[in-house]
Amino acid sequence: MSTSPHRNGDLDGRRILVVDDDPTVAEVAGTYLTAAGFVVDRAADGAEALRQLDALAPDLVVLDVMLPDIDGIETCRRIREAGDTAVLMLTARTSQDDRIDGLEAGADDYLTKPFSPRELVLRVRSVLRRTTSAAPSDAPIVCGGYRIDPAARIATYDGVELNLTAREFDLLEFLARRPGQAFDRTRLLQAVWGWSIGDLSTVTVHVRRLREKIEPDSTHPSHLVTVWGVGYRFDPTGTPPAERSAP
After folding, report:
1. What is the CATH number assigned to the segment(s) 12-132?
2. Cα 14 to Cα 18: distance, rounded to the nearest angstrom
3. Binned average pLDDT, 10 residues per bin, the chain of 247 residues
4. pLDDT at 243 (0 to 100)
5. In the chain, what are the domain boundaries?
6. CA–CA gap between residue 109 and residue 122 (Å, rounded)
7. Which CATH architecture has domain 141-240?
8. What does DSSP say about strands 182-183 and 224-227: parallel, antiparallel, or unpaired?
């Protein structure tokens, strides 16, 4: 089988750090990503990954969950604490709870082992385009107390910057461009993640995490509102919880 997928154009030269203690998996992933035009570095455990994160400043980390020292979930949390480097997690686990753990740790995407190397390349491209796609001419979105700047990828509320991951920013931007409109999880998965098929709990987890950062009380959201039987809508002005018909 050919290991020369189409090149990336604007993504050529982006640096990818592959973190996996299985040398075969690391070799295959590295070979395909290199053939696709990326610059690839490797680490065999979480501690080495965190050292290389500081030294190399990769654009994206492909991170295995099952690592011998610091596991992938904890490594992902530390990557997220250090900045907004994109993370795509690899997991041999298939239960929904394990995937949710990765998303809650801050991962932008996940891929279940065994995986197609070509799908890995496509997922890496998708995440990178999502996290770097804003054009400098994009005008800031101002609604209610929110100001969302797609070019700078900065969101503030009442002048205070919101500490959002790349995917949380994408979700907030998409909804803020369409205030008052309700979207189901399938539509959000397509629009924000670029997936036509995927685990809808991905959306649920990111909505919960985003609420924790933008709501005065995330257990009674007044901005990112649940529309029962449909999905979610964004209300930039918010309404008191007692006046809403649905939590």
Report:
1. 3.40.50.2300
2. 13
3. 53 88 94 92 94 88 92 91 87 70 84 90 88 61 87 89 90 89 87 75 92 88 90 79 38
4. 39
5. 12-132, 141-240
6. 12
7. Orthogonal Bundle (1.10)
8. unpaired
